[in-house]
Fold this sequence. Notes:
Oligomer: single chain
Strand order of the largest sheet: 3-2-1-4-5
Amino acid sequence: MSESSVEVNTVLVPVDGSDESVRAVEYAVAIADRYGADVHALYVFGEEVSRAIETGTVEEDDIIDETESFIDGARAIAENADVELGSSIAYGFSTHSKLRHPGSTVLDSADEVDADFIVVPRETLADEPGDVLEKAAEYVLLYASQPVLSV
C-alpha cells in the first residue's frame, strides 16, 4: 500500500471543557500522531461565560484557571503520544457583534493557525449550558474549507 499524499501539519480542536471536548482532543492527537502534525486546542467561551466576563459578574482569573486546567489535561494527552499541543482562548459570543458565534470563531481560528484539519465535538443529547461547541459543529461541518471530523 502506498503512503498517503494527504499532508496535515496542524490539527485544530475547539474545546469547551466538556467530556465531548476531551474525546475530540483524543481524536485530534491520534490524527496528528498519524501525520506527524501538531495540535492546536482552541478553548471557546460560551455565551454565559462571555457575558459574565464582559459585565464583570465573574472573576476572569477564575475562568482562566478553569481553562488552563482543561488545557493542561489536553496537553498531557498529547504528550503521551509525543505530539506538540499549542492553545489559545476565544469568545464564542459577543454582546457587541451579532456575527460572533462559536462556528465563526472556530473557522476564524482555523485560518489564523493555518489548520489543515479540524476535529470538532459533535452535538450530544445532553442540554448542558457549558457545551458551547454543540452549537458550532453543524456550522463548521457546513462551511470549513479544511477536512472536518465530528466526534
